[in-house]
Amino acid sequence: MIRKSMLVLLVLLVLTGAVFAGAKKEEGVRIQFASWMVAEESGGEVWLPERIAVWESQNPGVKVEIVPIGWEDTPNKVTLQIQGNNAPDVFTIESLWLGKFAKMPGAVVDLNRYMDSAFTSRLVPAYKGGEMDGKMAGLVWNPNPWVLVYNKSLAAAAGVSGEPKNPSDFLGQAQKIHSATGAFGAGLMLDIEEYSADTFHILMWANGGDMLDAGLKPVVDSAGTVQTVRLVKDMVDKGAVPFGEEVRNLRTLFAKKQVGFFFEGPWIAGVLDGQGMSRDDWQVSPWPGDVQPASHILCLAEGSKHKDLAWDLMKFVVTDETTTKEYFNRTGLMPLVKAQYDDPIYDNPYSKTFLAQMPSLRNPNVWASQKKFEVEIAFMEDIQKILLGEGAVEATLSGLKAKIAKILAE
To answer: Is 80 exceeded by the pLDDT of residue 178?
Structure first.
């Protein structure tokens, strides 16, 4: 009887152990990876899950939940998730949101704890694009400077090079494309969006203008800003620039050969592939002046329960050469690791144009302000009034200066 009881007990222990083992396996570590690059048809939506699956195979028991978030939805959605303490372990931001998340309490881990000199020495200098006020708020995934993208057939029809020597030459070439073909000479983002305000900097800087000076004082009524707004209004009035189109519509117009020039980063290759436009139909050329970064940046959520694992996933996505090389093929996005540029795959005019533009990266002063969004929306609201003929340039910008000063003081 005793032996029989012991046998029953042994069976129960074995069965119980099997149940607990199964439960433990099902409760494996879960990490969330959120990005618009898996939400959009831009080349990364298939490749990234494939490579993340490789990382999972190297980390048995760890499951990565890939969370698609639209680019437009990212700032507000992730902010709400951070406030609700349920943010994805790893999430993607763009450079223009760096200040927002770097300065948000409890939002992101300072990656200086992981990014020692042995690691950063392997990277191109643009890795600093994840830093603000000494805090490494994110790991630059792809260093993205803006350049000009132009339609080769429209440029040829207008007899222009597509490679302007200076900002005035750019405006002249855009006007010629419009006159010769009827297409828009240039696609500028002029809707009421902070993205539009950020791209406006490219033109303002060329004329010595800005929104805020280095001391975060409004300078929207300066001569350079006034000159830039007048130039843009002139192009809109002449029909050389579409008015109020958001970025996705501009890309569609470009793919339909209805826009000569527009400003984009290296993600544009995958985007235009998705639009069905052949890579033989367009080319990139450097902007003759400073441009702001639009780098994709991976952030590690402060609320992550598996920070070391999440960092390892981030590092894999950014530095694994098999991952970055094919990612470039599919999306056009450039790697962060210096040595990877020795591969012949980057020995082409496309890559060299973006590499040449990287030393001209410049953060807009407004990015350092916690009121960035409010300032830029106010800026674009008054720009639209001017473009619609509802206000004189100088008077409107003078009023805007007072409005921005009030926003900053609140």
So the answer is: yes
Could you give the C-alpha distances from 223 to 201, 210, 389, 392, in angstroms and in order?
Answer: 14, 10, 20, 14
Cα(121)–Cα(131) distance, integer angstroms: 15
Summarize pLDDT for 96-143 with one digit per residue, the tens.
899 899 999 999 999 999 999 999 999 999 999 999 989 999 999 999
Q: Which CATH class is domain 147-293+364-409?
A: alpha beta
Hey, what are 111's tokens?
A: 């990656």
Fold topology of 24-144+294-360: D-Maltodextrin-Binding Protein; domain 2 (3.40.190)
Contact 69, 32 (CB under 8 A): no
Burial state string for 336-360 with b = 16 or more CB within 10 A and e = fewer than 16: beeebeeeeebeeebbebbbebbeb
Task: Tell me what pLDDT residue 173 has.
Answer: 97
Structure tokens at 16: 């119980």
Yes or no: say if 317 and 141 are a contact pair by the CB < 8 Å rule: yes
Cβ neighbours of 94 (radius 10 Å): 19
SS3 content of the chain, % helix, strand, coil (to 5): 55, 15, 30
Q: Is the pLDDT of residue 362 over 70?
A: yes
Rg of the chain over CA atoms, in angstroms?
25
Structure tokens at 134: 């000494």
Q: Rounded to whole angstroms, how far apart are CA atoms 200 and 390?
A: 20
Provide the residue type at 168 as one letter. S
Going by the DSSP 8-state scheme, the letter that residue 295 receives in this structure is -
